[in-house]
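Exercise: predict the fold of this chain.
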Amino acid sequence: MSARLVHVGSAVVDYVYRIDVLPAPGTEKTASDYAQVAGGGFNMMVAATRTGMKVVFGGQLGSGPNGDFLRAAFAAEGIQTLTLPSPLMDSGNCVAMISSDAERTFVSWPGAESVLSLDLMAPVVIGPDDWVFTSGYTLSYPGSHDALTGWIEALPADIPFVFDPTPVIADIPRAILDRVLTRTTWLSCNTTEAAEIAGQGDVEALAARLLAEHCPQAAGVVIRSAAKGCHVGLADGSAQTIAGFKVAAIDTNGAGDTHIGAFVSALARGVPPFEAAAYANAAAAISVTRHGGSSAPTDAEIQTFLSQAVSTGVPGQTQKAHQTA
């Protein structure tokens, strides 16, 4: 694969606590397990690199222990950082509480990843085969959204730009969000985020409105629905709902990141969008059967999973197709 993913987003250190249920206000819980792991945008980058795509990081890491931890994690996955570390602050962190139903609750503290400038990003040079990605987290930070939005708008027109608005979409200034959506080639979001942009409706209507009214340059949009799979709408009017896979989930943290990373990696090597979505569904399904946000599978693991799903008739291969006007 010659394509390279340039991730201009944020990576943080996750402090992960496993508990049976969230504590009630004013009470305390003792966790059954604890881990310190690289998180945030790292999860998406891991999914892309484990499925064969070269990945580089164009955001900012800090100069303290969190930044050092992230640099070691990046090096272990073969991810190069293009920018210099912040001399003023450490990387941020996120407390993640994973309950027994595999759901997660987050509290985050921003650090060096929340500050970007055009001078800082000067070493991030885009090549002709590159794909560029950013997330809503970086666009929600007052210290980064203006510079990053201008940088995205200045990308060459033929460079694919992938955007995930993330759960903090409401914190992104609407003018910034609109400008980024206008330049987006592929939008990947969940149903809540899609409705935040385009209003209420079923996934078919949301995908059509996103393409017609908000993402005029997009090749397509992906609306993720967790275990149910995803809906893909394309600029040519075609659309498919790609069913998910039934697995025993133990940790859904990072599943959306895994889906996006696998989807982009598949697209970049020429896989058609609907097939890439099924591939991403499989990657996300495998990831939720493992602990940790950066639990993305390899391409070989995904191919084996898909082969077994076809041979056993596991739900996930049934696709609802239709044409939109």
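Check your answer against the key: Confidence is low (pLDDT under 50) at residues 316-325.
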